[in-house]
Amino acid sequence: MTPSETAYRGNCTTMVGSVYGTGKVEADALRRAFDALRAEHPTLAGFMEPAVGGYELVVPSHPAPGVVRVREASPAQPPSGREAVVDPAVELAAIDLAAEAGEPERFCLSLCVYHGAYDGHAITTVLIPRLLEQYSAIVLTGEPIAVEPQPMLESCETVLTRRGVRPTNEVSGFEEALRSAPVFPVTEVQSDERPRQVRLTFSAEETARLRAVGKARGFSVSAVVTAVVIDAMHEFLGRPEELVVPVLSVVAIRDRLDPPAPATEGTVMLGTGGAVVTATATSDPLELGGQVVDRLVRELRDGVIQQSCLHLPRLLGELAAPPPEAGPASKFLVGISNVGVVFDYPNPPGLVIEDFQGVSANLAAQDFGRPELGVATKHNYWFMALTYGGRLSLAFKVREAGSAPDHELPLVRALRSAADRILGSAED
């Protein structure tokens, strides 16, 4: 396996795609649907094991049934902590089904896949739709749809090489942002609690208005999302006179290759970019967001981002292990992965799908029994933005201890206020 496939092994980074809805999910049909999905995409039935010079992917000729966890939950939410990740030494994919009793019964169905095997684009556009399609067939006919095993996935490195993409020495915005990130002293006491996953969802009306405000000023939705995050971080950190904000961006590169790469041709077909902006009392968040996106567009045009993932294992290592001279401190970084619009999934028999959420989960320092390991990334804030059903949402983790409702958390309030300010600016 290549570096891009093994880079996420250390903390079991897992992509979790969660479908929310109402109705009673038939667990046996779901298990059979998952087995049919694994038969069609054999990589899902594999695992990683040590080999000479690294790791290799092992796919048994007769794999054991897929792991489908069924639990009662109120409210029905995606798994968290250790339950949200898959250990690639054991499995590359699992399903979690949370069922909430009531009238109607609610569910949250999550497909959890090791990030080094499939990226979010493949999960949202291929794997989840096919899982739902197989589930529907089994409920209606008693049998899954007949499938042909697909070829094993090739690595990102292989796909890029075949298209003539080679690593360059040009410093991308991503690497520049890492190098420019200011060091924040860790003055607060480390919480013994693992980071908490939260989500802020805007209404369809708010989403449409944010889009319209950006369009009226010549900014894309990505720029508007970036503006909201930058302004929120400025408020969240007390609005210092100047706040240097290194913004790291994750970009799907499948459609930016020649020829484009289908959703299941490569493993982790992502590029990384970034920019460093400075927020002040007089800066315009939309202008700052536009600066970040403008650099992304330029580096995509020049092919810098397309080859950036070839440097990713090294850069992730530098991010996880800051230089010793930094002492007990962490770098301040803001990461944004804008998935874009996820098209509505069809309703399986007896179910109504209402929402979708995508997150990146991994083992926290607390899961290793060493909370101090979290110091290096304590001031890293990563946001996954997507639009489903006409509603924009931001999923992220917070490190505040306690059990306050999501809407009362300081970072959630800051994000909401930032969006309100941008909407209000259109009325001034």
UniProtKB/TrEMBL annotation:
Its EC number is 2.3.1.282. Residues 193-395 form the Phthiocerol/phthiodiolone dimycocerosyl transferase C-terminal domain. GO terms for molecular function: acyltransferase activity. Keywords: Acyltransferase, Lipid biosynthesis, Lipid metabolism, Transferase. InterPro entries: CAT-like_dom_sf (IPR023213), PapA_C (IPR031641). Signal peptide: none annotated. Gene3D superfamilies: Chloramphenicol acetyltransferase-like domain, Nonribosomal peptide synthetase, condensation domain. It catalyses: 2 a mycocerosyl-[mycocerosic acid synthase] + a phthiocerol = a dimycocerosyl phthiocerol + 2 holo-[mycocerosic acid synthase]; 2 a mycocerosyl-[mycocerosic acid synthase] + a phthiodiolone = a dimycocerosyl phthiodiolone + 2 holo-[mycocerosic acid synthase]; 2 a mycocerosyl-[mycocerosic acid synthase] + a phenolphthiocerol = a dimycocerosyl phenolphthiocerol + 2 holo-[mycocerosic acid synthase]. The keyword Lipid metabolism applies. Belongs to the acyltransferase PapA5 family. This is Phthiocerol/phthiodiolone dimycocerosyl transferase. It comes from Segniliparus rugosus (strain ATCC BAA-974 / DSM 45345 / CCUG 50838 / CIP 108380 / JCM 13579 / CDC 945). The lineage of its organism: Bacteria, Bacillati, Actinomycetota, Actinomycetes, Mycobacteriales.
